[in-house]
């Protein structure tokens, strides 16, 4: 996501807030959003975004970092995008995916973060994962 996005990101933020609300009392389930535009999305900009979207600090972390590292995570750890890139100035990742990662840092599911119907599926999958432990 990026804070100045006017297309999919606002919808995803609403849906993430819904998930956060559903699991608000659950101390195990956490949410993480990575900004893909660290040059624009400073800590203070992200704080405003978090406040605007009702992010609870201990529940939904909204982070950024070095662009090359974020893009490498997206491509090689989360498999969020299939295209290659180097995380340079011309590289850009913008995906609608919510990715479910378990306690062992294994990917357990991909969901369309812009589709409210997908929230039911991710909630169900999270509940299944919680019962595996």
What structural class results from the helix and strand content?
alpha+beta
Strand order of the largest sheet: 1-2
CATH homologous superfamily classification: Glutaredoxin
* Gap from first CA to last CA: 31 Å
Family: Belongs to the SCO1/2 family.
InterPro entries: SCO1/SenC (IPR003782), Thioredoxin-like_sf (IPR036249)
Organism: hydrothermal vent metagenome
Pfam family, one: SCO1-SenC
Explain what this protein looks like in three dimensions.
This protein has 133 residues and is an alpha+beta fold. The protein has a single domain, classed as Glutaredoxin (3-Layer(aba) Sandwich). Helices cover 40% and strands 14% of the residues. The protein contains 4 helices and 4 strands. The protein has helices at 8-22, 43-52, 67-77, 116-132, and strands at residues 31-34, 60-63, 97-101, 107-112. Strands 1-2 form a two-stranded parallel sheet. A hairpin with a 5-residue loop joins strand 3 (97-101) and strand 4 (107-112). The longest helix is centred in the C-terminal third of the chain and has 17 residues, at 116-132. The relative contact order is 0.17.
Question: What's the quick description here?
Answer:
With 133 residues, this protein is α+β, with helices and mostly antiparallel strands. 40% of the residues lie in helices and 14% in strands.
Sequence-ordered SSE layout with sheet pairings:
Blueprint: H1 8-22, E1 31-34, H2 43-52, E2 60-63, H3 67-77, E3 97-101, E4 107-112, H4 116-132
Parallel strand pairs: 1-2
Antiparallel strand pairs: 3-4
């Amino acid at each position: 996501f990026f804070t100045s996005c006017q297309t999919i990101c606002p919808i995803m933020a609403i849906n993430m807030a819904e998930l956060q609300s559903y699991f608000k009392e659950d101390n195990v389930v956490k949410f993480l959003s990575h900004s893909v535009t660290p040059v624009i999305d400073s800590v203070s900009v992200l704080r405003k975004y978090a406040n605007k979207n009702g992010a609870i600090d201990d529940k939904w972390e909204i982070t950024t970092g070095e662009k090359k590292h974020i893009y490498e995570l997206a491509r090689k750890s989360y498999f969020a995008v299939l295209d290659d890139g180097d995380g340079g100035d011309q590289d850009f990742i913008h995906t609608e995916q919510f990715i479910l990662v378990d306690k062992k840092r294994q990917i357990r599911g991909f969901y369309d973060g812009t589709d409210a119907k997908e929230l039911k599926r991710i909630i169900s999958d999270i509940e299944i994962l919680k019962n595996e432990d």
